[in-house]
Amino acid sequence: MNALTSHNVATRELLLTSDRAQFQSLVDLDNIDSVLRGLLTIEEMREAGSFFTGQELAERALSRLSAITSSSIVLDPTCGAGNLLIEASKKLGVEPTLSATLKVWGQVLWGFDIHPHFIEAAKLRLTIAALNQGVEQDCDLEEAFELLPHILMRDALTVSQIELEKVTHVLMNPPFVIMPSPRKDYWKDGKVNTAGVVLDMYLRILPKGCNISAILPDVLRSGSRYTEFRKFVASSFKAKAEIWGRFNRKTDVDVFLLSGVTSASKNEILWHSLNSDTESISDYFDVRIGPLVAYRDPEEGQEYPYFYPKICPKWERISEVIEKRKFSGTALLPPFIVIKRTSSPSDRHRASATLISLKEPVVVENHMIVVTPKDGKIGTCKKLMRVLQSHKTNSFLNERIRLRHLTVGVIKDIPFSEVR
Ligand SMILES: C[S@@+](CC[C@H](N)C(=O)[O-])C[C@H]1O[C@@H](n2cnc3c(N)ncnc32)[C@H](O)[C@@H]1O
Fold first, then answer.
1. Co-location of 255 and 289 in the same domain
2. Final residue of a domain: which of 218, 234, 262?
3. CA of 180 to the centre of ligand 1 (A)
4. Which end of the chain is more exposed for a tag (fewer CB within 10 A), N or C?
5. How many Å lie between the centroid of ligand 1 and the Cα of residue 174?
6. Nearest CA to ligand 1 atom 24
7. Residues 205-230: what's their mean pLDDT?
8. Does ligand 1 have an atom closer than 6 angstroms to the CB of 49?
9. Does one domain contain both 218 and 332?
10. pLDDT, tens only, 344-400
């Protein structure tokens, strides 16, 4: 991963010419994302988890921290090309010369990354950020780099508690790539999001009272796989969760900000601002994933009417057989509603539903969620169709789950009352 090598070389040359007119674009937090996109394919960026925080989100993340002064230590454990550190440096002001400025910044700003070219870019850009504020260039680049000793190539996941005992603030936008579970504490087998593993580890080793502002993928806030993660976070972090939305225009992943102070006491984190006291779908319906996995389940056993997303038009009622398929697993007796699992906050309706009202057992594919009324009545299904179409349900789902698919848990929680 030598992505930024050529960019770093060009930046060094520019520094030698002292062409200050060009400096602004080099420290522009939005620009570095475009630079990286020009050098790497989207697959390579995903693999490295190298999506750099833009200006607006960096400002928001910083605004959630307590004051940063020359006696603070601000760490970004996965700093990339230093965007969050550059934003933090703006809180520190400058001294008359580059060396005096970096002497202060170098003690406050700490950053780790596993890629040396990102570390080089972070140091170059912090040097430029200082020059950009009009300080006198009284030292060469080598000396400037030596004045930033805590920005270094490190694996964030191998750092120890003692190394972090003086850290006062943490800013992070850890990689969102999927990694094998650490398989300790509450982490079960399988694959998990690296961002969760990084936050988990830092909550365990940072000193109490440390300020953290973390940019995290929405799956950690709303995904059913991360319930235990959320419980752990609440037990060690007095924090507030805030939905941000899409990471940036080019990156189709929704993020939220989690910010607060590390604390040993049990805390309540409001992962979403919805009232859990109201009645919900689970009070009146059974909710499950369609039992048939098309690519896996052999076409044997009894033949049933068969439903999958393509043949289920939104908001319509189907009372006749369209297709049939053999299946030896569980068949389900209508009436019920099927909801397509694929769903995005940009869709007009998040829960796209169809009423199935055949009078015989049918099979449903696993790309659909099946919602069966406990009273067995078509009227209750119709009520649910209206609820799912409503603006209120859309707002609920957009607040609750920003992922590109719906879960059984979130459908169960959709507010629904019998009296409508
Ligand atoms: C999403 S980017 C964020 C960079 C920066 N914090 C920002 O907001 O612009 C995540 C960064 O984590 C780095 N990274 C991945 N695994 C790491 C690890 N184990 N230790 C340290 N850095 C890591 C990647 O190289 C990448 O630069």
1. no
2. 262
3. 17
4. C
5. 5
6. 50
7. 95
8. yes
9. no
10. 888 888 999 999 999 999 999 999 999 999 999 999 999 999 999 999 999 899 888
